């Protein structure tokens, strides 16, 4: 037990909300290799790739991180029919792509307007352009909030309500409250609000784990607002326990 406790003293820096050049609102510098290089330079051991309504750049980032020691969580940021942003964080790329399929099947029709929203680039681990995604990734899906959270859980992912302190695209901003029966694994506070103030402001939601993240859309933002995970190793299973506060795992800021 003493040995186990000693191992759990490892503190892992994580940024669980990062966009790539696939997100229409991200800069074109947010390519897989550049993201990995920046994350490593910032001392991060875990990052999550969470593009808007797509997971297509996850494989490129994972491959770019090979042999760097950086653990990349396959993720997606889904826009619900209420225009609430929800992060889905998965252990396997296949699970993220399974979530992507249901998102694509329910995504608002239409093509991306590159002049208005920006280009949506799918890139490989060498930062080479593989394709241009023409879907309207900036749009909403026809899936409601509960359906999105349930779909994430059915694919064994963690469901996190994104930036709940923001007026736009957050569950509280859009609905005015978090439904009592919504089975979230965590709520995210944007980096602009100190966590102690957030806990006071949202004390009625203390049943949820609180995290912060960068929501990075350009390279300099990576690592800002990151969390620290007390765990055995960099892995989604460890993060899951830390969010629950079980097995000696925990989150600090």
Q: N- to C-terminal separation?
A: 26 Å
Global shape = globular
The CATH homologous superfamily is named: Metal-dependent hydrolases
How much is the average pLDDT? 96
Strand order of the largest sheet: 9-8-7-4-3-2-1-10-11
CATH top level class name = Alpha Beta
CATH fold-level topology: TIM Barrel
Radius of gyration: 17 Å
- Number of domain modules: 1
Strand content: 15-25%
Q: Please state the second-level CATH architecture.
A: Alpha-Beta Barrel
Share of helical residues: 25-40%
Class inferred from helices and paired strands: alpha/beta
- As residue ranges, the low-confidence spans are none
Give helix and strand order, one letter per element, not per position.
HEHEHEEHHEEHEHEHEEHE
**Strand tally:** 11
* Largest sheet properties: 9 strands, mixed
Note down, in words, how this protein is organized.
Helix 2 packs across helix 3 (58-64). The chain has a nine-stranded mixed β-sheet with strand order 9-8-7-4-3-2-1-10-11, with helices on both faces. The protein has a two-stranded antiparallel sheet with strand order 5-6. The chain has helices at residues 2-7, 32-41, 58-64, 93-105, 114-117, 145-154, 171-175, 195-201, 236-244; strands at residues 11-18, 46-49, 71-79, 85-89, 121-123, 129-132, 158-161, 186-190, 210-213, 227-230, 250-252. 28% of the residues lie in helices and 21% in strands. The chain has a single domain (2-252), classed as TIM Barrel (Alpha-Beta Barrel). It has 253 residues and is α/β, with parallel strands linked by helices. The radius of gyration is 17 Å and the shape is globular.
């Amino acid at each position: 037990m003493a040995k186990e406790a000693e191992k759990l003293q490892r503190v892992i820096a994580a940024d669980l909300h990062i966009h790539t050049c696939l997100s229409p609102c991200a800069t074109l510098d947010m390519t897989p290799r550049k993201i990995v290089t920046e994350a490593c330079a910032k001392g991060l051991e875990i990052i999550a790739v969470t593009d808007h309504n797509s997971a297509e750049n996850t494989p490129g980032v994972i491959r770019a991180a090979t042999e760097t020691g950086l653990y990349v969580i396959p993720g997606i940021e889904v826009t619900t029919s209420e225009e609430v942003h929800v992060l889905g964080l998965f252990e396997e790329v296949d699970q993220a792509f399974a979530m992507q399929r249901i998102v694509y099947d329910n995504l608002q029709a239409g093509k991306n307007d590159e002049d208005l929203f920006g280009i949506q680039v799918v890139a490989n681990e060498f930062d080479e352009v593989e394709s241009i995604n023409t879907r309207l990734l900036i749009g909403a899906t026809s899936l409601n909030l509960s359906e999105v959270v349930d779909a994430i859980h059915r694919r064994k992912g963690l469901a996190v309500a994104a930036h709940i302190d923001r007026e736009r695209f957050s569950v509280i901003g859009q609905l005015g409250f978090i439904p009592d029966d919504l089975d979230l694994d965590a709520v995210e506070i944007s980096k602009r609000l100190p966590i102690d103030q957030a806990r006071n402001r949202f004390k009625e939601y203390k049943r949820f784990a609180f995290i912060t993240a960068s929501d990075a859309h350009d390279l300099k933002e990576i690592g800002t607002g990151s969390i620290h995970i007390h765990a055995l190793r960099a892995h989604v299973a460890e993060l899951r326990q830390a969010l629950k506060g079980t097995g000696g795992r925990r989150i600090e800021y």
